Amino acid sequence: MKFDTVIIGGGLTGLVSGIRLVQQGQKCVIVSSGQSALHFFSGSFDLLNSLPDGSSVKNPEAAIEDLASQAPEHPYVKLGKAKFTELAREAKKFLSEIGIKTHGTSDKNHYRITPVGMLKPAWLTMSGFAFSEDHETFPWKKATLLNIEGFLDFHPEFISEAFEKMNVETEIKHFNLPELSAVRKNPSEFRSTNLSIIFDKEENLDTLAQIFSKNSKDSDVIIFPDCIGLKDTGILSRLIEKVGKPVFLIPTFPPSLVGIRTQQHLKEYFIKSGGIYMLGDNVTHADVEEHHVSKVYTHNHGDIPLMADNVILATGSFFSQGLIADTKKIYEPVFELDTDYLPNRADWYNPNFFEKQNYQQFGVKTNSNFNGIKDNKPIDNLFVSGAVLNGFNPLKEGNGAGVSILTALYVAEQILNQKKTHESNTQ
Asked: Using CA atoms, how far apart are residues 183 and 179, in angstroms rounded to an integer?
């Protein structure tokens, strides 16, 4: 099977690069083993919240020079300040064009509200989710925190405490629907995805609007857990119209409804644009000859290889087994690429769980064009992007989504430019 580009990994990185390539007429296939980290999505994309030394970042664009001095192998530093800024601005436009509306800019972080009421810096927040432009004020005087009776993945008490500290009066209300009784019988099914099946029904819209209105008479805004709009993405706006006041969502503990919705949207867009998505398959190995990938083999296709001009490795980090740790080393299992890690295993982690963990910045080595390196030499048609890369700490620096999106757009750009150069040279 011959393609222009084979993409290994069907998460945020793989889908963004895949969509960008098929938009430009490339024949692409994504090989995905299954669930991605998007299923733990908070509803906001982070670009850069902190520098490696712990300094907070308010303007990600302005912080790249400081980042370069502290982390020279960081993916953003490899991009360079000009390209970083260009891609960060392009990313919002790209997401909007494919139907994902967000709030935010790359020159000023705003603040998202976590499931436990904390304010965290964010780059882009999905439409419909609660946020604040700064960490000291909210634009409301009184808020109703509305929850479903017995729903344990949302804690309005924590949200209330955070709001009260910012001088927002709150009231906590709970409600029930007869249809929820069947779901409530099994606690493992009383989750956001199952609740959305009920809340997304058009016949329940008027009842929900009445409940929301009744429980928020004196409030400026209603805060509700993210458990509506999985199948019907327009139902929240119709609910707001009937209620007559703002309704903002706050993410729940996983499974993430907004994450599943985003994954489905990106996947469907990729397929509708002409891409092929091989779900439930994984790449086992590849033939690399003279630092060039010639064939890629998957579990489901056995000895029938996938062949392409270029390959993108977007397999993620330890969570999705894009990286694997044994007792002595960190390795990348498909191509056996060179990886960056500390030789002493005791240095991989800190016994204090909440401190910086060194293993989180381990990953695959690349050159400045994000070509994967094997035996100290770059593989000319293998590009690496996203969480599998070395040189950054997504949790402590708050940049996991940003690295995934920006490097995905960058390697897609490299592949397209490479093709243009080849075509012009053969004319």
From this structure: 8
Overall number of domains in the chain: 2
* pTM of this structure: 0.94
Contact between 204 and 177 under an 8 Å Cβ cutoff? The reply is: yes
Q: Is residue 415 part of a domain?
A: yes
Out of 226, 250, 274, pick the residue that ends a domain: 250
Tokens of 229: 């709009």
Give tens-digit pLDDT for 31-70: 998 877 888 888 999 999 999 999 999 999 999 999 999 9
Residue 203, number of CB atoms within 10 A of its CB: 7
Instruction: Report mean pLDDT in 10-residue bins for the chain, 427 residues.
Output: 96 97 97 86 95 96 97 97 98 97 96 88 95 87 95 91 90 92 77 91 94 95 95 92 96 89 95 96 94 96 95 94 93 96 90 86 96 97 97 95 98 90 62
Q: Exposed, middle or buried, 133 (CB in 10 Å: 0-12/13-18/19+)? A: middle
244 and 294 part of one domain: no
Helical (H) or strand (E) element with 225: strand 221-225
Tell me whether residue 95 is in a domain.
no
* 264 and 298 assigned to the same domain: yes
Using alpha carbons, select from 31, 30, 35, 60 the residue that is nearest to residue 48: 60
Q: What is the DSSP letter of 303?
A: T
CATH number at residue 241: 3.40.50
Please give the Cα distance from 416 to 248 (Å, whole number).
39
Residue count (the chain): 427
415 and 384 co-located in one domain? yes
Contact 382, 372 (CB under 8 A): yes
